[in-house]
Amino acid sequence: MYKKAKSMDATRKQSRKRITSDRSTWEGEIERLAWGGLGISRLEDGRVILLNAPLALFPHEVVRASVRQKSKHAEGEVVSWIKPSPLRAAPGCPTAGLCGGCDMQGAGSHYSDLKLSMVEDLFHRMLPNQPWDWLSAPMSALRHRIQLHWDGKSLGFHQRKKHTLVPISSCPAAVPTISQSIPRFEEALASHVLPSRPQRWELAAGTPPTDVFAIDEKQRAWLLEPDGWQKTEKSVVHNFLDHRLTHKPGGFFQASAAWAMESFHSVLSGWNLHGDTLYDLYGGVGLFSAILGDRFKNCVLLESDGDSIFHATQNLTSAKLRHQCIQADVAEWMPDYLGEAGDVILLDPPRAGLDAQVVQKLLNSKASALILIGCDGAAFCRDIKRLSQVWKPYKITVTDLFPMTVHVECVGMLAKRSD
What we know:
The chain is α+β, with helices and mostly antiparallel strands. The protein has helices spanning about 10-15, 110-125, 175-190, 255-270, 285-290, 305-320, 330-335, 355-365, 375-385; strands spanning about 20, 25-30, 30-35, 40, 50, 60-70, 75-85, 135, 145-150, 155-160, 165, 200-205, 210-215, 220-225, 230, 235-240, 245, 275-280, 295-305, 325, 345, 370-375, 390-400, 410-415. Helix content is about 25%, strand content about 30%. The strands form four sheets. Strands 8-23-24-22-21-18-19-20 form an eight-stranded mixed beta sheet, sandwiched between helices. The chain has a seven-stranded mixed beta sheet with strand order 1-2-6-7-5-4-3. α6 (about 305-320) links the parallel β19 (about 295-305) and β20 (about 325).
């Protein structure tokens, strides 16, 4: 239940909002941006309002929002702009504000600065006084994977925070070969060349993005050939520098593949990592082992997914790296005292971050260094704090691996505390 205002007139006078039993309309100025792209403002009584928006928000914009009262704060959704920022730009996509895929449309040339301010808010709150570097995304950073929904008649993305379909015929956030394949893909669904029951599909491309794959919910794959979509058993291939990585269509790989490989290589290669054994935990198909493996005498890659282990073994063998690939759950496999002096443990856990059991075992580790990677900034900072009694962050780089969204990738190197 939500507390009602004592007086409608008083409430209107104090915060310019019309109260209903559940929601109210609020008008006011955005003070600043917080982690996740939230606009921060305050009610007259000092309580914080957390505001979502279908497009990027700028500090000092005046907006109108539908607000729901909580016990200690309020949350709302921006429904219109009363005084837009002069820095705001026209969205670069015709479905911006409807499609739920790109949160930061409208930011224009100030996009990177806005995203940086969100990360600054996160680190200020969770890891104050911790130095970190920012690596912005180039304009060429496009997606090599997108997920589309087919409802039996139309193809598109889900509307923001809804299951309503937004039909599309192209996607400017995707590499051109994927975007240009969408009309042919929809035609194949409508003509029953491809399975036409309503479901979610993935379109994916390698690096360079020459081949385009369509993958259904049963993980069946089709390749777009000159004469149409053909069933395929081919792997998706990513080439970068001297590395060649393959994975199953529909299997996990970075969404903006080319930019991810470039940025990870740039960051990790600059940290002078080397030693005896590299433990690559949650290792996927071997991206990090491929980047760092020639700096170590041996690589031990751990991954729970069988298809990923199959491809990791092929990838690291092709790279002529001495390796061992193990299919297992990290928390169950990991011994209480993993690693010796000269070893490095690299962890790229799921979005939720490290399991508490894994954290405890890392506190006992004798390895020389940890590399922690996180695709959720808040979970990453939380895990850094949980490890801090033994491991001190030596370097942290925050990378914009998810252009036009509020998400980032954090990469940290931790060394044993000597203080």
